[in-house]
Structure formats: C-alpha cells, structure tokens
Amino acid sequence: MNNDIILKAENLFFSYDDENSHSLNGLSLEIKRGQKVAFMGSNGSGKSTFFLCCNGIHRPSSGTLYFNGEPVTYDKKGLLKLRSKIGIVFQDPDNQLFSASVYQEISFGILNLGVSEEDAKKEVEEVIEHLEITPFRHKPTHSLSGGQKKQVSIADILVMHPDIIILDEPAAALDPKHTTMVNQIVNRLTEAGITVLMATHDVNYAYEWADEIMLFHQGKVLMHGTPADVFSNKAVLAQTNLEAPAVLELFDSLCMKGILKPALPVPKNLQTLEKYIADVNINTTHYGGISPVNMKTKKAILAVSFGTSHDDTRKVTIDAIEDSMRQAFPEYPVYRAWTSKMIIRKLKNRDNLIIPTVKEAMEQMMSDGITDVLVQPTHVINGIENDLMKEDALTYRDSFHSISFGDPLLTTEDDSHKVIAAIADEFSHITEEQALVFMGHGTTHFANSIYAALDYTFKDKGYPNFFLGTVEAYPSMESLKKMLKAYQPKEVVLAPFMIVAGDHAKNDMAGDDPESWYSQFKDEGYEVKAVLKGLGEYEGIRRLFIDHIRAVDR
Ligand SMILES: Nc1ncnc2c1ncn2[C@@H]1O[C@H](COP(=O)(O)OP(=O)(O)OP(=O)(O)O)[C@@H](O)[C@H]1O
C-alpha cells in the first residue's frame, strides 16, 4: 500500500440492528498521512459509525480497515494498538471524561498503556502546558466549562501521541471564543504532523480548514476532493443537504456581476476575498475570462451604436465616429454592432445590408482570434440601451482575456463640460437673440436626470440661451416653452441632441406635423430654424469617444 496512506477503508459494512439497514454500506476511503480531512454529510450518513469502527468500539461486519498499511485486527492486542494510535474526541465531553481531577483524567490513558508514573507525569505536564490547561488544572472535571472540558478531552488523546486524532463536531455547543480556542488547538495538532479527521456540519469552517472533504451519504462516500472541488459541485451539495460556503457564494456573485474576474484563483477564505475586492479599482471597466498565460494579445474596438436607417446621417455620424476610432487606434481593428434589432431588420430587408448585433460581433471577434475587446458605445447616456449592451457583451466574458467598456458620452462631470465646449464650438455663431434648443431622446431610466443637469450646466457655464429638452421624458416641450417665454428670444434654433439626425430629428423636431417642435415653437410666435446635424458630426464629440476608449485601454 502507498506509504502516504495512513488509513484505508475497503468496502466496510456495519449494521446496528438488522442486516437490511446498513449504517456503513460498502464504505471505501483513503486518508493521506498528515492531512486535515473534514467528514461531512447529513445526519445519519455514517460518519460517527465509521469513527467508532476506527478505534474498535464497533467492528465492521465485513470489509477491511487498514492502518499504516496493515489490516486492523479487532483482538485485544489489535484494539490496544489501534486505540493508542487513533484517538477520538467525542462530541459531548461528558461521554469521555470520567475522572475526578484534570490530572487524573489526562494521565489515565497513558498509565493504562504501561508508561511509568514518572514518564507519564512528564507527558501530562507537557500537554497541560501545550493546551493551556494550567489555569484550571486543579478544578474538579465536573465543574469545568464546556470549552475547558473540550480542552481536557483533547489532552486525554494528545498525551497518547496518536498518529490520528478524530474530532466529532469539536465546536458543537461552544461559544465563539471557545470555538476559536479549540480551532487553534486543532491547528497546532496538524502543525505537529498529526492526521486530523473532523466531522463537522460547518461548511465555512470545513472549506477553509480542510485539505480534503469526505462527503458521506447513506453509509458511503459520495464524493471526496479538495474543498473547492466538492463545494462547487451543486448537484452533490443538494443531495447531501449542504450549502456552499459563504465565501464561494460571494465570490460567484461578484464574478457574475463582473466585479471580480472568474479567472482569479478561488478564494480559500474571507481575507483572500477581501483582498480581491480591495484590489478592484472601483472605476474598473475590465472583465476577464480565459488566462492570458502564453497567449498573444490581439485587441479590437467594438463600436456599439443604436443604429439608424437613414444612410445620409449614418455616413456623417456613426461611420465618422468609427473612422476617427480607426485613425486614433490604427493598430486595433474596429468592429461595428448596433443595438436596435428593428433597424437591423429594416436594413436587411430594404438594402440587404447586414449589421451585426453585439452578440454577433462578439462571435465574429472570437473567430478572428481577438483576445481583448474595448467596447465603446456611442450612446449618449448610461441608460437601458447601455446596460443591455453590456449584458450581451458579458455573455462572452469567458471567451476573451478581457472585455473593457468605455463610458457613454455623458458620464462624468468632465464629460458634461467637454460636451458643452464641443457644442459651443459648433454653434459659435449663435447670438443672444437666438435660443439654441436641443432635442434629446429621454428615457424612464434614472440616467435621464443628466438632461436636466446639462441644461442647468449650460446656464452655469455662461450660455443662458442654450436649452435642452427631450422627446420622451423630462425636460419636456412644456418646460422648454416656459423657459423660452422667460428668455424671450427672437429666433429658436433647433438641433438634435442625439448622435444621429434620424427619424426624431427629421420628424419630431424639424417636421411639418403640428406636434413637431418646429411647429409648436412657430405657434408660440418664434422664428424657428432647424439644424439637422447629429452629435456624431461634431469633432469635439468624436474626440470625447476616443478619450473614453483611451481611459480603458490598458
Ligand atoms: N447506537 C445506535 N443504534 C442504532 N442505530 C444507530 C446508532 N447510532 C447510529 N445509528 C444509525 O446509524 C446510521 C448512521 O448514524 P451515524 O451516527 O453514524 O451518522 P452521522 O453521519 O455521524 O450523523 P450525525 O451527523 O448526526 O452525527 C443512522 O441511520 C443512525 O440512525
């Protein structure tokens, strides 16, 4: 037998009553020397019964138990040897402690082994000191606290110099302070090279402590392996009524949210997870998948737009933005994706033009061997479109080394200032007698508030005659009318606050329909002029998108 294996069970059967119900039901397992093994599984799955077979309290009806490679014989000599080398610390110390004084209790076993009183005294004193029993060593055992009794019952076993210590739920009924103390003692046992087998229902403790988990189910081992392997097997956990440890659950959900990279080593404890979180740059836009080891980086930009069916405006807006990306990043191929399925369908039917969705573009990049994706939306705000686009892209997070997201146009305060500067540049000819009124789209998403904020910032930055309203939300046409009445311009100049000058700009803003902004402002008595120029046509806006890519290109 492999010398590393200290204990081996081969097809053990054991029944308490009739032969039809087996508490051990063909149990086989191997324990490596010096390991910390957590025995887990639902109540009644056979853990304690196995332990009792290990020190001869029970004898398997069939099968063989090997200790240090030798089959265990359950005769008197065999049992004496077994009990001196494999010690059990029972769950309830009252089932174990029977001597009146602490000293008598600890020395009982070793004296029984035939060790001289003098040598026994030396051993007992050592254990008393090692396990910090000195402060209560002169108390009668019955008056000790639960934690102190546990210390003495571990001392009982430790003094025999066992090769294996079995602990049955060592922390049961202990308060947190005593649990920590017992855990520290257990750590010292393993540091001393003793093989420790522990039955526990505490998944969090077992996950962090154990080298190996033995998962019992109906009298045999259902699964064994490293804590990470066992606890990530959801089917096996469900079958044995176990929950995943909190640290794993938390790690999983932080990966799902894209906050941590799934490629990180699975954290062994909360401290490691805390470190991962501390290392996250809260402004991070990076999501990672496969390991970069030995992988050649091939980066690409994915420009994601809502889309437009108007070719004239597309050329000077979306196409122009993508062209400036190519110019700014000549080393990266630029891919296109649109988020409006309706427009994609329309172009396919009308012009037989195929525009990829985000998912299709991600697939294409995968097959082109792209390893790192810089996704740059041309969306104006961080609204629903942007959220959904990110979700779609992140479906592929495990297929790329990294996926990074540049911000939509209006994200930070600095963006607002730069957008205003770009507008001021574009409309430097606007006089005080004119009101420049922008039409934004508007949304029910909370990000809509940026429109009103920008309108406020126009004024704050010295442009009292710049106004921003939305077609679908606040600020509405009604608010604009009130504000213009207060400003009293001679002429209203309308312009879209959208990347393209498409349907909304052409119809809702500049159309002849009585409901259009053009008609409504006319009805209010203003001279009205419409400038059909999408934001994508402004050089300053295109530059801002490039800045946003640069910010996430690491
Ligand atoms: N003294 C006994 N007499 C009869 N049946 C018993 C006895 N002890 C245990 N059993 C039965 O043997 C089976 C295995 O019990 P065992 O105590 O070994 O399980 P366990 O995994 O240690 O459970 P727990 O997590 O509750 O400690 C159960 O069906 C139990 O009812």
Automatic annotation (TrEMBL):
<dbReference type="InterPro" id="IPR003439">
    <property type="entry name" value="ABC_transporter-like_ATP-bd"/>
</dbReference>
<protein>
    <recommendedName>
        <fullName>ABC transporter domain-containing protein</fullName>
    </recommendedName>
</protein>
<keyword id="KW-1278">Translocase</keyword>
<keyword id="KW-0813">Transport</keyword>
<keyword id="KW-0067">ATP-binding</keyword>
<dbReference type="InterPro" id="IPR050095">
    <property type="entry name" value="ECF_ABC_transporter_ATP-bd"/>
</dbReference>
<keyword id="KW-1003">Cell membrane</keyword>
<feature type="domain" description="ABC transporter">
    <location>
        <begin position="7"/>
        <end position="243"/>
    </location>
</feature>
<dbReference type="InterPro" id="IPR027417">
    <property type="entry name" value="P-loop_NTPase"/>
</dbReference>
<keyword id="KW-0472">Membrane</keyword>
<dbReference type="InterPro" id="IPR005876">
    <property type="entry name" value="Co_trans_ATP-bd"/>
</dbReference>
<dbReference type="InterPro" id="IPR015856">
    <property type="entry name" value="ABC_transpr_CbiO/EcfA_su"/>
</dbReference>
<comment type="function">
    <text>Probably part of an ABC transporter complex. Responsible for energy coupling to the transport system.</text>
</comment>
<dbReference type="InterPro" id="IPR003593">
    <property type="entry name" value="AAA+_ATPase"/>
</dbReference>
<dbReference type="Pfam" id="PF06180">
    <property type="entry name" value="CbiK"/>
</dbReference>
<dbReference type="Pfam" id="PF00005">
    <property type="entry name" value="ABC_tran"/>
</dbReference>
<dbReference type="InterPro" id="IPR010388">
    <property type="entry name" value="Anaerobic_Co-chelatase"/>
</dbReference>
<keyword id="KW-0547">Nucleotide-binding</keyword>
<comment type="similarity">
    <text>Belongs to the ABC transporter superfamily.</text>
</comment>
